[in-house]
Write a structure and sequence with these properties.
Number of helices: 9
Order of helices and strands: HHHHHHHHH
Largest sheet: none
Shape: elongated
Oligomer: single chain
Helix content: over 70%
Structural class: mainly alpha
Number of strands: 0
Radius of gyration: 20 Å
């Protein structure tokens, strides 16, 4: 196995870790524990399944950390195809989303403190604490909606690098661009036209499989063909 192939497979493996852990807090925990517009039920569920909720918090911290390593591995792999695009990919896909994940964990921590109660919260009755906890959980969700813009934008320089590199199929670059458009559209709709968010899901879902296809290609096939290129700015 060539060094380039090893780099590609390493990037794919790290990417796979993100794909396995990401749905825990993003999909599973909200589905299992949160009751929309029912703060008391949501609070009871969190208290009853506190360990699961804490694992969700750890999952966000894990994702925030692993993002740096994933994007760094992609940077090393794809930098010869364009240094400017590679740096932009690092900022939009690594540094900024990583910071958001760490900061957003504070919303879950605040919600957990509120539902568990503490002496310094005696000024609030139980119903007020439950409503405040729901508020922090909603803020967490809105931060994720905002982060979807970055989830989309970083795929644009990544797609440019994939298109130029010469050892990955260009169809992946096209799919990544469509994936980027889907994320940005969902983020835009979430804030500007929330009534359209649900109707966008069936359209965006197949487009958002572009990242999965890219990850699996790196993991299974690696760098199948290498064309030596001069480093160039995007």
């Amino acid at each position: 196995m060539t060094p380039l192939n090893k780099q590609a497979r390493l990037a794919g493996f790290l990417y796979l870790l993100l794909a396995l852990v990401g749905p825990l807090r993003l999909i599973y925990i909200p589905t299992a524990l949160f009751a929309s517009d029912h703060p008391a039920q949501t609070a009871a569920n969190i208290v009853a399944h506190e360990t699961l909720f804490r694992w969700g918090m750890f999952g966000d911290l894990f994702i925030g950390t692993m993002l740096i390593f994933v994007v760094l591995a992609l940077y090393r792999l794809l930098k010869p195809a364009g240094s400017t695009a590679a740096v932009l990919m690092m900022i939009l896909g690594g540094l900024l989303p990583s910071a958001i994940y760490f900061i957003n964990t504070a919303n879950d921590a605040a919600a957990l403190v509120l539902v568990r109660g503490a002496p310094f919260l005696d000024a609030f009755n139980q119903a007020q604490r439950e409503s405040l906890a729901m508020l922090f959980l909603r803020v967490h969700r809105e931060v994720i909606t905002a982060a979807e813009t970055l989830w989309g934008l970083w795929l644009v320089p990544l797609a440019i690098l994939v298109w130029r590199c010469g050892f990955l199929p260009r169809v992946l670059a096209v799919w990544l661009i469509l994936n980027a458009c889907a994320y940005v559209a969902q983020s835009f709709a979430g804030f500007v036209m929330p009534h359209l968010s649900d109707s966008l899901e069936p359209i965006c879902f197949p487009l958002q499989l572009g990242e999965i296809a890219f990850m699996l290609w790196l993991l299974v096939f690696g760098a199948r063909r290498y064309i030596l290129m001069e480093s160039k700015d995007a």
